Amino acid sequence: MSETRKDTLTIFMYPWFAMGHFIPYLLTANKFAERGHKTFLIVPPNTQPKLSPLSLYPDHIKFIPISIPAVDGLPAHVETTNDTTIQDQDLLRHALDLTQPVIESLLCDLKPDFIFSDLKHWVPGLARRLQIKSVYYSVASPATMGFLFTEGMLTEDIINGPPGYPPSIKLHKHMARVFVWFQTAKERGSGITLQKRFLTAICESDAVGFKTCKEIEGEYCEFLENMLKKPILFAGPMVPKPEANLTLDQKWAEWLDKFKPRTVIFCAFGTEVVLKKDRLEELLLGFELTGLPFLIALRPPLGVDSIEEDLPHGFKERTKERGIVYGGWVPQQLILKLSSVGCFVTHCGYGSTWEGLMSECQLVVLPHAFDHCIQARLLSGVLKVGLEVEIGDEDGLFTKEGVHGAIMAAMADGSEAGKEVRRNHDKYREFLMREGLEDSYFDNFVTKLRTLLE
């Protein structure tokens, strides 16, 4: 493809500074680059080395590192959400708001066709002033975005979502109370609520994009199309291809290979979920109750240097022949492909949701944040491809018995619930793995983007 303005699109990407946002944006940049388009991706300096191996087309994808402006109360080392607590993330959002002059200068120099962004309520206005099309590119599901438009402060007003929202997903009462905070708590620095930040960024953009397909989330896509009255673009399902040189630690691979096919439970909650000590204990004891082999990869609880320090009394000795608990990152996709792994216990981050759907493992969902809860309900209640760990409606707490029960319902021979989710999972996985699906969706995505420039 010739490098002309007519044929080649230039996309400027400024995601929220979290790994769960960088990676989907970079996967999308790879798709653009595969078709000859050029992408500039804004990143913090220390994060670029972690992302560079995932860039498959370095001639077409350029990282632009920017420093985080100093903000009172935000430690100087903070670059991403992984460096701070959820309570202080409003300060990181404020710091990124202060990058607006830098971003404007870059946009004036680069003159892109589009800016893809999320969470930055000022981006659409800036793009409009510079005559650049803005796309709110979401790393969460259409079902999650639809719920953001909920109004009212009463639990009864919130649990069912906004008027016209498909009735198949409802919030627990404890999460409805969290949503009230989302609606009312004003951020330090910006002085606006998180809901206002989201809705302004979404509603003032020229289009909204998702890395999904309508066959999976159709009714929620239609809800947004009817509500927003603007183009809703679907880039299709995207799961990164495992790097050729990426291998599982040899001792783990050998250890996992000793178990029978589809008997190992794998549990991972992404790079940001941090369980409290009592929740970690309930989770681990639930795994112990199953009597099955397991690999658990989680961040240590706050205030603990390593997860191994915080295991329940006697747990390591009792499970040493069949269990590993690790406090660092593991190559999730490689583990899900192992023949011995038969169950994936996930927090339902959107990336993990798609990796789970495309795996052959039984899915057990245990969400922790608002978007995780919506996506968990999508898997367990709408698509019926996984089983959800029972949690308290009022307090959101789970028990070891609940963890054990969900896993065994998914794994046990003769479990009718397990058979149903496996049938449904097999059906959707077969569709998602269909040859040409990803390319067809992304080609259409690019075509729809071009129409915005006409």
TrEMBL record:
<dbReference type="InterPro" id="IPR050481">
    <property type="entry name" value="UDP-glycosyltransf_plant"/>
</dbReference>
<dbReference type="GO" id="GO:0035251">
    <property type="term" value="F:UDP-glucosyltransferase activity"/>
</dbReference>
<dbReference type="InterPro" id="IPR035595">
    <property type="entry name" value="UDP_glycos_trans_CS"/>
</dbReference>
<protein>
    <recommendedName>
        <fullName>Glycosyltransferase</fullName>
        <ecNumber>2.4.1.-</ecNumber>
    </recommendedName>
</protein>
<keyword id="KW-0808">Transferase</keyword>
<comment type="similarity">
    <text>Belongs to the UDP-glycosyltransferase family.</text>
</comment>
<keyword id="KW-0328">Glycosyltransferase</keyword>
<dbReference type="InterPro" id="IPR002213">
    <property type="entry name" value="UDP_glucos_trans"/>
</dbReference>
